[in-house]
Amino acid sequence: MTRLSGITPSGHVHLGNHLGAIRRWAAEGRADDLYFVSDLHAMTSAHNPARLRGLAREQLAVLVAAGVPEESVFVQSDLVRELGALNWVMECTATYGEAARMIQFKEKAKGRSGVRLSLLTYPSLMVADILLQGASEVPVGEDQRQHVELARALARRFNTTYGEVFTVPRAVLPQAGARVRDLSDPSRKMSKSTRDAAGIVFVLDKPDAIERKVRRAVTDGESTVEYAPDTRPGAANLLEILAACKEITPEKAAADCSSYGALKDAVTEAVVETLRPIRERAGALLDDGGELDRLRRAGADRAIARGEHRLRSALRLIGAC
Ligand code: TYM
Q: Superkingdom of the source (predicted)?
């Protein structure tokens, strides 16, 4: 069994990415799993090349600093030739209807002009990410499930039409409550692409920034603390964050706090202590640079070597080369 998942550097890594994904990759990841920075995916809407390069580097440092096995990490664009080739094979296996049906495409393209063609075809690149490496399990949030379903469909279609090459992957979804919401607006999830950063705790935020953001988090007018996600979403989000950091239930977290002041103090402390070692180690990796470059090169070599034979077989079977 090989697990594979990715994170897109469309902004700074935040607490939601950490608690919902990276932390699990670190806890469950084995050396032959693959966790990568999907920088090619960050080019599907307006982007700044220099900023993107910096964010990709930062995310790689955060993955390593958070404890994702060093042997498992790589940066997607280091495989651009292999992935570009397999993406073409996948575009020739998928239909236009399948791509146009993707909910993320519909949501992101809605009402916009100048939508990049890559926003439509990006699921095909994601399929290539998964199939090139022969991944059998893909841990993702609900938002990415449809893309993994497409990978299943295309792997099966290719295998039956041209010959057996690809492992048919399946999505592995996190347990309920793994979705972290924006601290200023608990009706939306914490997201890298939100413009206003007031409600987003970044993994590399300093303690005083974390404290400020938690202190300003939206709650409600009640004087007691209770875990009620449907009626008190702001408080529930803070309780879920506290519970995730301390590995207790949100109900237990609520019972431990007598007021919102006490809850916010507890959340600040728990988040600061959860993120501190990651910020320090990532900072050291980014300052030194040499170690990160070495890890990046080794990761790329390993990922290319792993996928090479599948790409060659797929190209041969489909009639190229
Ligand atoms: P991305 O960068 O949007 O998200 C990375 C991971 O973080 C999770 N996540 C959250 N979890 C909890 N609360 C939140 N507020 C929150 N926001 C994000 C996501 O569910 C995800 O697990 N297209 C993918 C990256 C990708 C990929 C792949 C994944 C590229 N190729 C191949 C799997 C396989 C993406 O943009 O993830």
A: Bacteria
User: Residue 222 is part of a domain; what is its CATH number?
Assistant: 1.10.240.10
pLDDT, tens digit, 9 for 90 and up, residues 36-83: 999 999 999 999 999 999 999 999 999 999 999 999 999 999 999 999
What domain range includes position 9? 4-172+289-318
CA dihedral (236, 246, 280, 262) positive or negative: positive
Please, what is the Cα angle at 131 between 126 and 132, to 5 degrees? 100
What's the pLDDT score for residue 29? 84
User: Average pLDDT over the chain, rounded to whole?
Assistant: 95
For residue 176, what pLDDT is reported? 58
Q: Which of 3, 5, 12, 17 to mutate to test the pocket of ligand 1 (most atoms within 8 A of CB)?
A: 17
Looking at the structure of the chain, the number of domains it has is: 2
C-alpha 144 to ligand 1 mean position (Å): 7
Q: Is residue 92 located within the same domain as residue 215?
A: no
144 lines ligand 1 (CB under 6 A): yes
Q: If DSSP codes are grouped into helix, strand and coil, which group holds residue 58?
A: helix
Reply yes or no on whether 189 is catalytic: yes
Pair (304, 205) in one structural domain: no
Domain identity same for 241 and 259: yes
Q: Would you say the CB of residue 34 lies under 6 angstroms from ligand 1?
A: no
CA of 228 to the centre of ligand 1 (A): 26
DSSP of 98-160: HHHT-HHHHHHHTT-SS--HHHHHHHHHHHHHHHHTT-SEEE--GGGHHHHHHHHHHHHHHHH
Percentage with pLDDT > 70 across the chain: 99
C-beta 12 within 6 A of ligand 1: no
